[in-house]
Amino acid sequence: MKDKGIALVISGPSGAGKGTLVKMLTQEFPNITFSVSYTTRRPRRGEKQGIDYFFVDKERFKELVERDFFAEWAQVHGNFYGTPKIEIEQRLDKGLDVIFDIDVQGARKLKQNLKDGVFVFIMPPGIEELRDRLEKRGTDSKEVVEKRLKNAKKEIDAAREFDFIVVNDILSEAYERLRCIYIAQKSRVYPDR
Amino acid sequence: MKDKGIALVISGPSGAGKGTLVKMLTQEFPNITFSVSYTTRRPRRGEKQGIDYFFVDKERFKELVERDFFAEWAQVHGNFYGTPKIEIEQRLDKGLDVIFDIDVQGARKLKQNLKDGVFVFIMPPGIEELRDRLEKRGTDSKEVVEKRLKNAKKEIDAAREFDFIVVNDILSEAYERLRCIYIAQKSRVYPDR
Prior knowledge:
2 copies of one chain form a homodimer.
Chain A: E1 7-11, H1 18-28, E2 32-34, E3 37-39, E4 53-55, H2 58-66, E5 70-76, E6 79-84, H3 88-93, E7 97-101, H4 104-113, E8 118-123, H5 127-137, H6 142-157, E9 164-167, H7 171-186
Parallel strand pairs in A: 1-7, 1-8, 2-7, 3-4, 8-9
Antiparallel strand pairs in A: 3-6, 5-6
Helix pairs in contact in A: 5-6
């Protein structure tokens, strides 16, 4: 019998570097499959429908919520994000690992549906560093940056609810920690944390 | 305040490769200090007093047992082995990590004294492979090899009592897993497992 896969939930404030770390991990380990979320926000440059997100309008999103389609959904910075239930358990049962790149609110809700998941908080090195990154990314207005920063401060307080904290100061070091968390989890006798 | 150190207990049957893996880990991570055991067995070629073990005679060992000096002690293959309580908690409080290279009986007893320890079982790839290794090591008589193998079979059944299992088939891969278990543990929010 094949071992059940691991649900790896990667969360943290906007700009902490979740997306980059998740991409690196899925590139190194082909057994990790990406859980594609639904969102009502607009695609950023280079983002592809069905790969980065399923981009839908608010009407369609509400329809899916009513059909109990999501393991979790949330409104963040005025947009809706949701994780489809479909396939998650199927994938885990097949022995595939499933990774989630998700905001803190979403991670909290996932925790209710994924009791055996491994919850990792990606911590930016400091609020000023975070502001720099968000401003350099240049995809958000000054107002949105301030909103994201205010949320970030709240979210950092949430870090202690997670199983692991990875500080993303130097990317290569943060990645080394994240991949080790994954590898170690694969050696657990009771892979339930 | 400095974080408390981690007690890392490395166990498994004789010939599984515990010693080699522990040496590699302590060489890579200077924060990991080696818990030197007391033993009544004879030094193997190259082993040094106070570095590899404290070699003592049976009389001295019994004296120390009576003084409640050991966190655990056991008789294995006719010899006595013991882990001194002294310094362990002090080292952990200072933020140093402490590693134990110990047989399965000893690991079981340590579990009672080190509730927050991380317990790793090093698993040989198979009994035949283990026999080869013990015979090639050439330090034991045929009779002792048979005794060790008999114990090994019992000990492998004990693996599920541990937190992690690392199969030592290819040394570099086993080491990668072990170092990841250590690194991941350093990122735990509640480092109590």
